[in-house]
Amino acid sequence: MLLKIIIRSAIILIIIVILIGAMGSAYLALNGRKLLLSEIEKNLGVKAQISSLRVSFPPALIVDGFAIQDSIKIDRIIIYPSLFAMLRGDIILNTLIFEKPALQVIRNSDDSFDLCKGVFKNGAIAPEPKKILSETTSTDGRKKTKKPGKFYLNHLKIKNANIEFVDNGIAGAEPFKIRLANVDLDVFHPILFNFFRMQFKGQGDMLSTADDKIGKLSISGWVDILAKDMDANITLSGARLTYLKPYYKKFLKRDLSSGDMDVTALLISKNNNMTADCHLELNNIAFKEPQAGAPEQGTAEPVDFTLLAVNSLLSSKGKVIFDFSIRTKMDKPRFEKIKIKGSFLQSAIQGAISKPPKETIEDFNRIGKQFESIGKEFKKSFKNQ
């Protein structure tokens, strides 16, 4: 008898789940397009276009040919909503997948950013959406205000994204363009009921305008956007320095004929106080021979970093390693409080120690001035980029 009751209850439960799934699929099929476009316009302040929309089972909304003007294009969006939340009037997405999104990010000379050809400016995606409150009439005739539905995203996946980055903020240089291709990003909430803490992991290839691979970028860690806490790792590996000339030409008198750069950064923030501990390695550094009689750029005499590189940096097969840390704010990062330490003056120091005392003191004074100049120029280059 008990077994029959259990079987009957299980069958009823399965039927209820199937009916809810069918109702949810029907609701998405009838209202999915309108709901999606209205939510985008309400929350982002822009209008979007959709080529086609269909519903699959288990309930998922599949959007093909999504575009916002000519600034963002996404081949396919797959949305897995929570049907129970929809019945309550909330919008909770269990998983949101973007396949092959393409967009552009522009850095301006005033350090502001234009996202997607100016549709979203200065890092602000859109003004805060207005909460639409509906009114209902109670039994005693008084009007009651109904709370707006909740919106919550549990899991975000980005597959094979293409991001074009244009830097107009390099002083005295033409706009620098670079492309991030094959970008994959996975963002999810590792802690239940903490909607503001997100775990993330991603990677992508750095390509030149000629589609040459010039490096690989990867990120991982977690961030709490409400508490402004973060623990993240950023790695740039195999970056080809010859393609990054606009960033180093200010403090290198001679062009590089070869060179690779590997950078790892550990970003830790607590209550918005962020420290970035960075480790940088330069490998296979070689300089082009200077042209005879070539005029020097600029009127002021900059620090001769090329000479320092020849005398100090390239003491071990064209390789140099140094570390620096940056203290800033998580919500408004700035390259200001930079502390530098490294091995790039190691050969000069060893050479000074081997000399007589008087020459040793003079050499150490010279090394100290060189180190101070390097620090000033390094910080200045960050501020002016």
Q: How much of the residues is beta strand, in percent?
A: 35-45%
Q: List how many beta strands DSSP finds.
A: 18
Regions with pLDDT < 50 over 5+ consecutive residues? Answer: 122-134, 298-303, 347-355, 357-361
Rg value: 28 Å
What's the order of the H and E elements?
Answer: HEEEHEEEEEEEEEEEHEEHEEHH
Largest sheet: 16 strands, mixed
User: What number is the mean pLDDT?
Assistant: 73
Note the total helix count: 6
Amount of helix? 25-40%
Structural class, by secondary structure, is: alpha+beta
Shape: elongated
The N- to C-terminal Cα distance equals 78 Å
Structure description:
With 385 residues, the protein is α+β, with helices and mostly antiparallel strands. It has a domain at 227-290 and 298-385. 25% of the residues lie in helices and 43% in strands. It has 6 helices and 18 strands. The chain has helices at residues 2-44, 83-87, 245-248, 305-313, 346-353, 357-384; strands at 52-56, 60-68, 72-81, 91-107, 113-115, 120-121, 134-137, 143-146, 151-153, 155-167, 176-188, 197-207, 213-224, 229-240, 256-270, 273-287, 320-329, 337-342. The strands form 2 sheets. The protein has a 16-stranded mixed beta sheet that branches.
